[in-house]
């Protein structure tokens, strides 16, 4: 049996975190080590998918729901503009293998991917 991820443990209440938004399938927390003025994590409650490629193949509707929730929290907690990042694979910086989207906002226009 694999260990529950840190996100599953947060959902179970075993690790403290404020849940900023929640639907039947998805929840949102602040990243503990923010990389931007706004840095939220959109996380499926299910830990079945390790990364976004598995999620897209297995449950595209859940991926679409994550994007919709990302937009909603970017409006509720920021100015509505955001960057959505899925680190995919350890070599790309993924450390938690329970798929999650980073919602980054605030002062990103000059960033390396910002054009
Ligand atoms: P990644 O490196 O893309 O797998 O993203 C995992 C993210 O989870 C990192 O940005 C961490 O800072 C964040 N993280 C890890 N533990 C916690 C926690 N207990 N609460 C909030 N964010 C966390």
Q: Enumerate the strands of the largest sheet in spatial order, edge to edge or round the barrel.
A: 1-2-3-5-4
Distance between the termini: 44 Å
Could you name the CATH class? Alpha Beta
CATH architecture: 2-Layer Sandwich
The global form is globular
Radius of gyration: 14 Å
How many independent structural domains?
1
State the major sheet: 5 strands, antiparallel
Strand element count: 5
CATH topology descriptor: HIT family, subunit A
CATH level 4 superfamily: HIT-like
Low-confidence stretches: none
Number of helices: 3
Structural class: alpha+beta
Bound molecules: adenosine monophosphate
Could you report the average pLDDT, rounded to the nearest whole number? 95
Q: Summarize the amount of helix as a percent range.
A: 25-40%
Helix and strand sequence: HEEEHHEE
Query: Beta-sheet strand percentage?
Result: 15-25%
Outline the structure in words:
- There is one protein chain.
- With 115 residues, the chain is α+β, with helices and mostly antiparallel strands.
- The protein has a single domain (6-105), classed as HIT family, subunit A (2-Layer Sandwich).
- The chain is 27% helix and 19% strand.
- It contains three helices and five strands, in the order H-E-E-E-H-H-E-E.
- It has helices at residues 6-11, 52-58, 60-77, and strands at 21-22, 26-30, 38-44, 83-85, 101-105.
- It has a five-stranded antiparallel sheet, with helices on one face.
- Strand 2 and strand 3 form a beta hairpin.
- The termini are far apart.
- The model has no long low-confidence stretch (mean pLDDT 95).
- Adenosine monophosphate is lined by residues 6, 15, 17, 29, 31-33, 41, 87, 93-96.
């Amino acid at each position: 049996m694999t260990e529950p991820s840190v996100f599953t443990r947060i959902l179970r209440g075993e690790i403290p975190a404020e849940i900023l938004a929640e639907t039947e399938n998805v929840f949102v927390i602040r990243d503990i080590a923010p990389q931007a003025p706004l840095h939220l994590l959109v996380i499926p409650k299910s830990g079945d998918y390790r990364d976004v490629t598995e999620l897209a193949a297995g449950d595209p509707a859940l991926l679409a729901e994550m994007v919709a929730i990302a937009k909603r929290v970017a409006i509720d907690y920021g100015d509505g503009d955001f960057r959505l990042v899925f680190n995919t694979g350890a070599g790309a910086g993924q450390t938690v293998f329970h798929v999650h989207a980073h919602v980054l906002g605030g002062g990103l226009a000059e960033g390396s991917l910002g054009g």
